[in-house]
Amino acid sequence: MNTDEYLMKKCIQLAQKGKGYVSPNPLVGCVILKDGKIIGKGYHKLFGKEHAEINAGLDAKKHGYELKDSIVYVNLEPCSHTGKTFPCSEFLIKEKVSRVVIGMKDPYERVNGRGIFNLKKAGIEVKCGVLEYECKKLNRFFIKYVTKHLPYVSLKIAQSIDGKIALEDYTSKWITGEKSRKYVHKLRSEYDVVMIGKNTAQIDNPSLTVREVRGRSPYRIVIDRDSSLPENLKLFSDSHRSKTFSISGISKRAVTNIYSKNIIKVREKDQKIVLKDILKKFYSMNISSVLVEGGANLFSQFIKTGLFDDIYYFIAPKIIGKGISSFENFKINSIRDSKQIEFVNQKILEKDLLIYCRNVHGNN
Fold it and tell me: In 10 A of CB 73, how many CB atoms?
């Protein structure tokens, strides 16, 4: 690993500190090098606040260093437009840095090469594409959000080794172990939204908050097309800061005040809410990532439509036999119609096995 790659890896590590706090902005870290010494480090900490390059520059100046003739490392192309903050490319030009090393070009249409162009025009040496695969993986939520105008969707499935997510009576606590549940809480902290179906809300009565690890809790979404869930569910009655929405089609009854304030109405087809409409609605709400946690009906709809990007399978070494399958309501007539996924990696979590898969036809 050469110096450029080593310091880009440092940028990625810094950028990860912003997970859960900068959405729908990208995760960005920055390292500044001068005379062979790191003089400044920073990352994008909070949506609407200073970007990584600014924070790294302020860090350097705080320690008595000037940025003139320094080398700036950043995992994403410096922005070139004025939004909530000053353009980072203009900041680097003003500070007279000599070289900028970039992990990947910014796919956002208001940047998309303009930051690089401005830097080169100002006489600054630019190198782009260092650890590009790793940088794109880091910002997969952001990339889909700005290129497809849809949030990134992950399915989280906890099941027995024979593919059951619950007993026949829908009992499901706890199929997987404590370490798996802690991992799920970490996942939740990184997503904007955690979403479940009506049956899961009613039967499991989950909190869907982050408790086992440090981090912010996501918005909690429950699909309830007729607005009939009881108010005493944890989703509605707890005092946690995250807001809860109910997605409703045609309301079949007068809903209570607390419930009606949180309804998002979307289109229905064949008495089912149209998933793509939900995802488009999320995009309009600046939601860039969704973690789907159940149940079988919702999992089946995402598989049928292909509107998911990856799956986290938490598999317990238990055999349940008759029970509820992960994709209970998905049916094909031929093996040729099966949905193709790609195994990416696996991890042992105490007794459980976590298998991470990607949708071969993702980024819908």
Answer: 29
Question: Is the distance from CB of 215 to CB of 20 less than 8 angstroms?
Answer: yes
Active-site residue (options: 5, 50, 53, 134): 53
pLDDT digits (tens, 9 = 90+) for 164-180: 998 888 877 789 999 99
**What's the rounded Cα separation, in Å, for the pair 128 and 75?**
9
Closest to 357 in 3D by CA, of 313, 316, 317, 325: 313
Which helix (H) or strand (E) segment holds residue 120: the answer is helix 114-121
pTM for this prediction? 0.89
Q: Please name every residue paired with 128 in a beta bridge, in sequence order, or none if there are none.
A: 102
Per DSSP, the chain holds a count of helices (H) and strands (E) of 12, 18
Cα 349 to Cα 102: distance, rounded to the nearest angstrom: 35
Q: Among this protein's residues, is 231 annotated catalytic?
A: no
Cβ distance 41 to 74 under 8 Å?
no
Q: What is the pLDDT of residues 35-83, one digit of tens each?
A: 999 999 999 999 888 899 999 999 999 999 999 999 999 999 998 766 6
Q: Would you state the pLDDT for residue 242? A: 43
Return the number of other C-beta atoms located less than 10 Å from residue 29's C-beta: 29
